[in-house]
Each structure stands twice: as C-alpha cells, then as structure tokens.
Amino acid sequence: MSKLRLFGTDGLRGEVGTGVLTPIGAHRLGQALGLWVRQQTAAAPCVVVGRDTRQSGPVLTAALQAGLQEVGVNVIDLGVLPTAAVGRHTQWQQALAGVMVTASHNPYTDNGFKLFGADGDKLADTALTQLEDFLLADNPVVMSAAVTGQARRLTTAATTYQDHLRQNLPTALSLHGYRLVVDCANGAQSDIAPHLLQQLGAEVYPLHVQPDGQNINHACGALYPAALQAAVVAQQADLGLAFDGDADRLQLVDANGHLIDGDQIMAAIVKAWHDQGQYHGGLVGTVMTNQALEVFVQQMGYGFVRTDVGDPKVVKELRTRGWPLGGEPNGHIIFGDQAGCGDALLAALHFLQVMRYRGQSAATIGHTLQLLPAATQNLRLAPGQNARAVMEHPDVIAALATAQAALAGVGRLVARPSGTEPLIRLTVEAQTTAQCQAVLSALSHTVQAALRH
Predict the structure, then answer these.
(1) Distance between CA atoms of residues 451 and 362, nearest Å
(2) Are strands 250-254 and 423-429 parallel, antiparallel or unpaired?
(3) Are 54 and 245 in contact (CB under 8 A)?
C-alpha cells in the first residue's frame, strides 16, 4: 500500500482555505466518502457528522454533508460534539462511517477531518488511500435526484454521550465533596463536561466555556494550561481538568498547580486496577511515552509496547493484543473496550474514580509515577519545505548520531516530523534536566541551520 498523501497522523488537517479545507474540497471529500460507503452495502447507507466550535466548521460541515447526500448517502448531523462521541455515535446509529470536522488542538485558522469506520475506530489506511485516490483524480460526479440522500439533525447526541459515560464506569462515581476547575478550551466539551461533573456531585468552576468561533485553543486548554493552574490554586480546588478543542486529549492539574500528564494519568489508573485485580495484559504507549512508565508497568508484571504517534496506531495495537489501556503523554488516553480513540472526559472520570477509591489527593495519585526529565522543542518548517529532506541533511544525520551516543544507556532521543503540523519535533529524555537541555540545544542548533538552507 502506498504512503498516505493527504491524511496524516490522525486525519486530514491544515489551514482553512487550502487544499481540501475549502467548501469545494469538503464537498469532494463527502462525495468520495459517500461512494466508498456505498460500496459496502446495497441498503441505504448512513454517515454521522459532528464538529467542534471553530468558525469554519458550519461551512465545511454543510459542504461535506452535501457531497455525501449527492451520491445517495443519508446523513445524521450530530452538531457540536467531542471526537470520541462521534466515534460512538457511528456505532450507535449503525452508520457505515463517521466524520468529525476538527483540527483538534490547532488554532481556529486550521480545520480538518477525522474519519471513523462502522466499528467506531478511526478509518483504516486502506480506506483512506481510496479516498485520496478519488480526491486527487478529480473526476466529476453527476448528481441524480433519484439517489439523493436525506439529512436529519440528532438533537439528543450530546445527552446520549453524557449518559453513556455516567452509566458505563466500572462502579458508580460520586463526586460530592470535590471542587473542580474545568478548562474546556472553548471547544467541543464546553457544555457537556461541566454539566456531567455537576450531575455527579462536584462543585465545578468552568473555564473557557464560551466559544466564539475564534477562541478555540487560544491560550487555554490542554496545550496552554497556565490559566488553569492559576485558577486551581486560586479556587483551592481538588483538581483541574484541561481538554483540547475536540476533547480527545487531557491534562490534569493538582491542588498545588502542578501538571499531571497522560503518562502519569495512565500510571495511576493501571496501579489502581492492578491493586483491585482488574488489570490484564499490558499497556500500549508510543515513541513519545516516558521511559519511566515503561519501567513502571513492567515492574508490575505487565507487557509494554510502543507504536508510532497517533491514537489510530495505539488503537490498532490494543485491538491486536486485547489489552485494555494505551495512550500518549499529550493526554490521548484510550480505553480499548470502551472507545476507538482518545476520550478526555472518560479519562478524567477514571482518574477521579481512582481518587475516590484511594481517598487520596490528585497530587499523591498523579505523581505515583516520577517521570524522567525530558525536554522538547518544535521547529517550524518554511512553507513548502520538506521535513524528510531536512532530517536527511548530512549535518543533521551527524548531529543525531552524536546525540544518540551522548544518551546511550542514560536516556532517549525522539526526532520526527509532525504528522499534524509543519514542524520537526525534538524530544530528549535523560537522567537530569541539564543533560536534556545540553543534548537538545546542540541538536536544535544543527536542525535550525539545516532549516535555513
């Protein structure tokens, strides 16, 4: 199978007004997905569509839906909804595919499409390749009134998802006595998360829950938690929760204002399930997973494997091995028997359940895992610049070899092009912060020089 040309680590994403991210492009994607869906069944096929809160969402969603209907596919419009909820509704509505119109954690000037199969997992690369072939061929589609699909709005989509989360935790969860600050990044979780947590008994202080189309992810949410950290301390809260724009990644903040990342969240959950005799198999991480989590899991007697970045890769490994949990330090956390992608609110509920079960603070539970020191730098590519060519520059190859040698036996190096943004990401883990910074600084200097040439 050829390498994907338009779809990246997790869907198709980019600047609005370019490529497929125009009304014409979205319409073509709708046609392509619709024709692919119609190959799967002789009956009238159905696709569900949701979106986040960014300004371009309604226009791109309408164009996508028009393309689907034009080739005879019925559409269920879910409205504004987290990505994980779109995956679930794909199953619940017995649809053959689902689409989330989102650019996830990117700024409002970007948008994109995440696609699900009938099983609620992200669409496989084989299907994405077929969609790309259609989009790149640019063959016209002739509309026929006889086969035009219908569209309807599902007004209960958010409520159904919320009720499902509450009813499907391993044990009933009461949050009475907890004070929570909830940063929804002005995104898809802005209405659902505060409401659900209040229903469960928590005292909730919502933060960044007034989307205006342009403020999604702007200095808030999982990527920019400084405001949440300050609010947790100011409100004397027990825990802070930070989602990104489409609510598939989670970062937590303890009462002292300290961050708890995805690796630490998973460690807390694995340890609690282990102590209750409810864990089995192992855990799936990625190349970005801190080495400390790998050691932590293995010391408890469980397996551990790494995949490339992206929750579709993690899900595939979870399905293959039948393991219950996997994810990334950025907060994509996947419960293999409950969801086909990262679900930030579900992960937060599981963490809160561990807090209740142990009767301990988030600071104690969240720092069960002591992470190895790590440092990361993202270097932006110029328009049209090829990341692979930069990484294959002789000076960069030599610098990578030097960095690997310096870290041999004491740390790890991850240097990779981003699958979602025009960036080269450099991450160094070592025994001390000083080691991390020294290796990263030297490598970054060389990569930046290559970027300028």
Answers:
(1) 42
(2) unpaired
(3) yes
